[in-house]
Every structure is written in structure tokens, then in C-alpha cells.
Amino acid sequence: MNQDWEDRVAAAWARFGDYPEHRAGEFRTLIDALVAELPPGSPLAPFERACAWDSTGHSDRAVPLYRQALAGGLDGYRGRRAKIQLASSLRNTGQPEEGVELLTPELDAPSDELDDAVRACLALCLSSLGRDREGLSLVLGALAAHLPRYQRSMADYARLLVEPED
After folding, report:
1. pLDDT value at position 164?
2. To pair with 130 at 20 to 30 A between CA atoms, which of 14, 37, 62, 72?
3. How many Cα atoms are found within 13 Å in the side-chain-facing hemisphere of 73?
4. Is 92 within 8 Å of 61 (Cβ atoms)?
């Protein structure tokens, strides 16, 4: 889509906080109006709709839309966002194992600003499966890179949560 459309979508999301829970339908209507401008078959349409449903507390409505966006070819940055958000919604709807399957390959994907979000969401999915040590390891490993000191120690501690010490 063009930059004008991108700017209007970004502006709508920037105003999301202006919509209290009882006005969530108005926000979804705004997103639907923007999505209606997209060409038929654009994977951005189900992605933006999924985000709107998800953000207004309806993970169950978001899951099939995220799936549709990914199946329709959504890739790159938005594709990675869709995987993170789908995994979170799957966890929220009682399917954390599918969230783990979806996000585990993302640990080896090219690095970007979403790396920590991948790890955080994957950690929550793992925790929902009773795999807290693995989840904690991911979160500590992600946090280590942001610490002003102790990066190496925290990274080692994170690794040792899931790997036995020799």
C-alpha cells in the first residue's frame, strides 16, 4: 500500500488508547474502513483486522485472521509480528504448544527489533506448558544483552538453566 495509507493506519493505532473498552467496536470499524481500501487478497487486510480484534480482547477472533494473513503471503516485518501475535493469541486460547511450534523457528530467523518479543512470547507459551526453566532461560538471555554490566554472567546463567553444567 502507499505511504498515505500506512500513515493513516499508524495514526489509528496511535489513537488506540483513546478508545475505552466500551468503544472497542468503533476502533475495529475504523480499522475495517482502512482495510477496505486494500486490493482484494492483500494479506494486510486480515492482519490489520486480527490486530484490532486481538487488541480489543478477542484473541479467538484474531487467530483465524492471523492464519489467513500468513497463508496469504504476509512476510517480512509484519509477517514476524503476525507470528508473535498469533502465538500469543494461541496461548490465550489454550493452545500454547502451537505457539511454541510457531515461534521456535523464529529464534534462528534473521535478527531484528522483534527478537526480544519473540523470546518473551515464546517464554510465556513455554510457561503455560509447565516449561518454566526454558522460558526463564529465554527471557534472561534476551535481558542480558540490555544490561549495563553482567551480560556474560546472565547469558551463562540463562544457558545453564537448560543445559547441564559439565
Report:
1. 73
2. 62
3. 3
4. no
Which residues does 73 contact at the CB level (< 8 Å), separation at least 6? Answer: 43
Give the integer Cα–Cα distance in Å for 63 and 135: 23
pLDDT digits (tens, 9 = 90+) for 75-96: 999 999 999 999 999 999 999 9
In whole angstroms, what is the distance from residue 154 CA to residue 82 CA? 29
Q: Which amino acid is at 4?
A: D
Q: Report yes or no: 5 and 34 within 8 Å, Cβ to Cβ.
A: yes
CA dist., res. 166 & res. 160, Å (int): 10
3-class SS at 129? coil
Cα separation, 117 vs 104, in Å, equals 12
Q: Please give the CATH topology (third level) of the domain spanning 3-130.
A: 1.25.40
Using H for helix, E for strand and C for coil, what is the string for 55-110?
HCCCHHHHHHHHHHHHHCCCCHHHHHHHHHHHHHHHHHCCCHHHHHHHHHHHHHCC
Record the cell numbers describing residue 35, joined without a space.
482495510
The single residue listed with the C-alpha cell 509484519 is 78
**Is residue 87 within 8 Å of residue 119, measured between CB atoms?**
no
Domain spans of the chain? 3-130
Residues of the chain whose pLDDT is less than 50?
none
* DSSP state, residue 93: T
Could you tell me the CA-to-CA distances from 55 to 25, 101, 146, 153 in Å, in that order? 11, 23, 27, 36
